[in-house]
Amino acid sequence: MKAVDPVPVEARLRDIQSITDAALSRLDELGLLTELLDRIREIMQVDTAAVLLLDASSGQLIATAAAGLEEEVRQGVRIPVGRGFAGRIAAERRAVILDHVDHTTVLNPILWAKGIRSMMGVPMTAGDDVIGVLHVGSLVPRPFTSYDTELLQLAADRAATAVKSMLAHADRVAVTALQLSLVPSALPAVAGMEMAARYVPGRGVLGGDWYDVFTLPSRELCVVMGDVAGSGLAAAVIMGRMRSALRAYALETPDPGEVLDRLDRNVRHFEPDALATVLYAVIDAAHEQMRICLAGHFLPVIALPGLPAEPVLAAAGLMIGIGDDTRRPVTTMTIPPQALLCFYTDGLIERPGEMIDDGLARLCRVITAQHPEAACAAVMAALIGSEPARDDVALLMLRRRAEDDDDA
Amino acid sequence: MPDAMFPVEMVSGVPVVTTPEQVDITNADGLRAALLESAQRGHSSVVVDMSRTEFCDTAGLHALVAAHKRALAEGGELRLVTAGAAVQRIFAITGLNRVIPGFASLQEAVSGSSSG
Q: How high is the mean pLDDT of chain A?
């Protein structure tokens, strides 16, 4: 609480507020940021204003929007966190005022070459995380006060809101595009095998569930079901990388356990924070046998004509992304003619307050050895219904045709 | 930031995070924060008391695995108290029961050795 003349602060804050509220409805967020910076320049009577956003993967601040300092954005200025003026603000999460701008205090030569004499910057935060830095500069020496700092921090909080919304929107667009490119739009046509699949995002948030079906040069048929922990762009990107890596290892080695082992090493090295469950199964060219390996994934279900469906009793193996030296067991099973195989992710059967086995039993009750399309429809109707699923759901069914029915 | 849903208490010098009935995508960040806070207080080992927990999804497991890795890197360990059958089942399916030590009671988890 400051005792210093509260009226102008209020008035100036209202100015900032009015521009953001009005602008939000009609501008994209980058436009809003630029307009906000223009207004800050006017209200605080400074010559430059700029926003640098943190790129968490590189640990660098990247110039994103500027007023009176457009070259900073055009030249793609990057400042490592912890170094220079903006880097210090991000690292120390506090306002910094400079009354002396040269190469000893400021890393970015654009700032001192421009003749900026005084600078002030504040962190932009979202929750507990620093997401960027907002700074202003004056071409004439100017003693910034704590009162100025307070005002700039209010503007930075506003800008952070706009940025969060901008990033969330960009994420959604990118995730949708990624998801569409990653989940096979059409399942491969394989003689003797019928297939159908469903993918439904949970409560509108795209997550990291994926499935993949492909054949090898040996004419073996490979089935992948996976679930990357997390949601949004980060999970979708990891999912995409895992999908590609798994396909590559599948071409190299016939043993499903070895494929998942290599995938695990790949993930632990390149995505050390990722965690995923994966099921990988290889069906022989005659579709008579399946070798299946689980990395923390739920058991698939098999249904034979006239018999109740039941879980395939494949041995459990450790999730991807943790690492120990134990090899995941591979279970070999026979696929009788007309058998229906059902692969899925946890969102299909997990319900709070219930045993997994109850969910699995419910799934088994609604699966019959019918055409995969009909079986998918029946399962989704019975287990998902019309409520939005709380988690992603991916579902994949394969049916081996009767032997006398090979080429329909 | 402390989260009322995931209280952290010291028991015989070991931080103990107690989890609610459900740990899922809606509150896993709270668990993550509580575990991080325990680590930042300078404790390499931490106990997560999940005896009240009846549901834990992938997001919850993710938070636990991150804490497990951090504890190992610092020479400690993450120890779980898992009494509920549903949670034990998830740990068996995911293979985590072989990697993260589980204990039948809080007392055993805090001392780091099972009485059996």
A: 86
Most A CBs within 10 Å: which of B55, B93, B96, as the mutation test of the A interface?
B93
> Which among A50, A142, A323 is positioned nearest to B65, based on CA atoms?
A323
- The answer to whether B96 contacts A352, with C-beta atoms less than 8 Å apart, is no
- Rounded Cα distance between A257 and A262, Å, is 9
CB pairs under 8 A between A and B: 76
Residue of A nearest to B70 (CA): A273
pLDDT digits (tens, 9 = 90+) for A211-247: 999 999 999 999 999 999 877 778 888 988 999 999 9
Question: Tokens in use for A1?
Answer: 């609480």
Which residues 6+ apart lie within 8 Å of A147 measured at CB? A2, A4, A9
On whether the CB atoms of residues A162 and A180 are closer than 8 A, the answer is no
Inspect the interface and report whether the beta carbons of B93 and A390 lie closer than 8 Å.
no
Contact A249, A240 (CB under 8 A): no
Model pTM greater than 0.90? no
Q: Which helix (H) or strand (E) holds B79?
A: strand B78-81
**Per-residue pLDDT tens over the stretch A271-321:** 998 999 999 999 999 999 999 999 999 999 999 999 999 999 999 999 999
